[in-house]
Amino acid sequence: MQLGIFSFNTEYTMPADELARECEARGFESLWLPEHTHIPANRESQYPGGGELPEEYVHMSDPFIGLAAAAAVTKTLKLGTGISLVVEHDPIVQAKQVASLDRISNGRFLFGVGAGWNKEEMANHGTPPRKRWKVLTERLEAMKVLWTEHEATYHGEFVNFDRIWSYPKPLTKPHPPILLGSLNSPTGRQRAVDLCDGWIPVETAIADMPASIADLHDRARAAGRAPGSLPISFFCVHAASMERLERYRSLGAVRTVVRAPTAGREEILPFLDRYADIARKLA
Predict the structure, then answer these.
(1) pLDDT digits (tens, 9 = 90+) for 59-115
(2) Cα gap 240→1, rounded to integer Å
(3) pTM
(4) Using CA atoms, how far apart are residues 87 and 134, in angstroms rounded to an integer?
(5) Residue ranges of the domains in the chain?
(6) Burial profile 192-201: b = 16 or more Cβ within 10 angstroms, e = fewer
(7) 125-128 long-range CB contacts below 8 Å, 24 or more apart?
(8) Closest CA to 137 of 188, 62, 184
(9) Residues 227, 151: Cα–Cα separation, whole Å
(10) Which H helix or E strand runs over 92?
């Protein structure tokens, strides 16, 4: 199992290009940046982590620009969105962003996607909260057509276009790996099987994971897919103890992503040094 690093990528943390260089120098597998286009000042949606929304949610930068900067100064580090809120993007524009980033990074991009939890935020983008998964499904399907066909057409409830040309195509064929971030639920696992190339389960009780992973594999086989076609990535949003990391490895995870401090170099660099040592033990 490999270790990746997650950063909230704010204006008061290490810039994404500097952080990427430090991650690659220490042998980390990947760097992941999250996305919220904005946070509505008035909202009823409750923060899933409980309590007040952490301040860094208001300050995160655009992940695609950050990852493009990271791609320019690294050679081996994989670069992921953790996660991109597809329901807040025009799919024609996002298909071009993803393909461009995949080419700039020489095929190192990992497209983590999700529908999000902040209903007011997605509504500001014109997405009906109750239909966000339908919107996500159509937009992913449309992007796959744009990435793989010279002359693309797609018709759905929320996405419609006739005979368009969209280039560049991704360097990675047929497209960069799509990893679904979702609740650890039967519906979430089925969506991963139907739409994606990997699963990022929202962190839950670790005791529930063996049965959930077995169910994921059963669903993959029922769809004619090999279980190995849906690798699992864990995001450790709380304390990433060695015990927890070893447990994730025992569950067959291909990677675990640990959260860097939302701070400057004086805190982030010692954090990276500590987890670089742990990464060598887990590899």
Answers:
(1) 999 999 999 999 999 999 999 999 999 999 999 999 999 999 999 999 999 999 999
(2) 14
(3) 0.97
(4) 9
(5) 2-282
(6) bbebbbbbbb
(7) 125/37, 125/87, 125/88, 125/89, 127/87, 127/88
(8) 188
(9) 32
(10) helix 91-104
* SS3 (DSSP) at 83: coil
Task: Tell me how far apart the alpha carbons of residues 229 and 227 are, in angstroms, rounded to a whole number.
Answer: 5
Residue 78 DSSP label: E
C-beta separation of 142 from 156 below 8 A: yes
Given a contact cutoff of 8 angstroms between Cβ atoms, the answer to whether 235 and 244 are in contact is: no
Identity of the amino acid at 245: L
Q: 275: alpha, beta or left, given left = phi > 0 and alpha = psi -120 to 50?
A: alpha
Residue count of the chain, please give it: 283
Question: Which CATH number fits the domain 2-282, given the four candidates 3.40.50.170, 3.20.20.30, 3.50.50.60, 3.30.420.270?
Answer: 3.20.20.30
Amino acid occupying residue 213:
I
Q: 6 by DSSP, 3-state: which?
A: strand
User: What percent helix, strand, coil does the chain show, rounded to 5?
Assistant: 45, 20, 40
Whole-number Å distance between alpha carbons of 181 and 201: 6
DSSP 228: G
> Which amino acid makes up residue 71?
A
Q: Is the pLDDT of residue 283 over 90?
A: no
Whether the Cβ atoms of residue 39 and residue 121 lie closer than 8 Å to each other: yes
Chain Cα centroid distance, residue 220: 20
B/e letters for 218-227, b = 16+ CB within 10 Å, e = fewer, are ebbeeeeeeb
Beta strands in the chain (DSSP E): 2-6, 30-33, 78-81, 84-85, 109-114, 152-155, 160-164, 178-182, 198-201, 233-236, 255-259
